[in-house]
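If you are new to this repository, start here. Below is one unmodified record pulled from the training split, so you can see the exact layout before writing a loader.
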Amino acid sequence: MLTRWLGWFSAAGVTLVTFALLILDLTDVGFRRWWAARALTTDTVAGLLVLLVTVLVVDQVVSRRQVNDRSRAVAAQAAIVMGQATLSSRAVSAALDGSGERGAASDQVRTYMIMLLVAAPVLIDARVSRTFLEEAQRLGGAMVRALTTMAKAPGATTISGAGLDDAVKRLRAASAPLLATLNPDELLAAGGGG
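And here is the target side for that same chain:
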C-alpha cells in the first residue's frame, strides 16, 4: 500500500489528468480527431485511467478504514492494560501501607505483567502506543521493586510508594491519546474506566 499522502496525491493526480483529457476532448476538435483516429490507443488510455483512479481511491479508502480499525483495537488493548494497571497499583499500594496483603498484590502484578506480554505486539507498532507500552513497563518495574523491597524488609511498617504513584500518573498521561478514540461505554467495557 502507498503511504497516506502519496496515495492521495497519486489519486488526485490521475483524476486531474482524466478530467483534463475529458475537457480537451469536449472542447478541442483537433484533439478529438486525433484520438478518434486511434481507437486502440484511446481505449487503452481510457481503461488505464479508469483502473488507476479506481485502484488508487479504493486503496486509500481501505487504508483509512484499516487505520481506524487498528486504532480502535489498540485503544481497547490499552484500556484493558490500564484497567489491570489500576487494580495492580492499588493492590501494591495497599500492601505497602499495611492495609492489604503482599500475596494478593503479587498476584495482581503477575497478571499485569502477563497482560503486558500479550499486549506488547499490538502496542509496539506506533509511536503513541509504544510510549504507552514503555510507561506500562516502567509501572510494572516500579510495582515489582516495591514488592521486592517489601519482601526484603518484612518488619518495616510502611514503605514509600512515591515512585509507584509517579509511574501511575505517567501511564495515565500516556494512555489519554489512545483512550480518546473509545466512547465511555467501550472504555468501561474494556476495564479502563477507572
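Two things worth knowing about this chain: DSSP finds seven helices and no strands in the chain. The radius of gyration is 28 Å.
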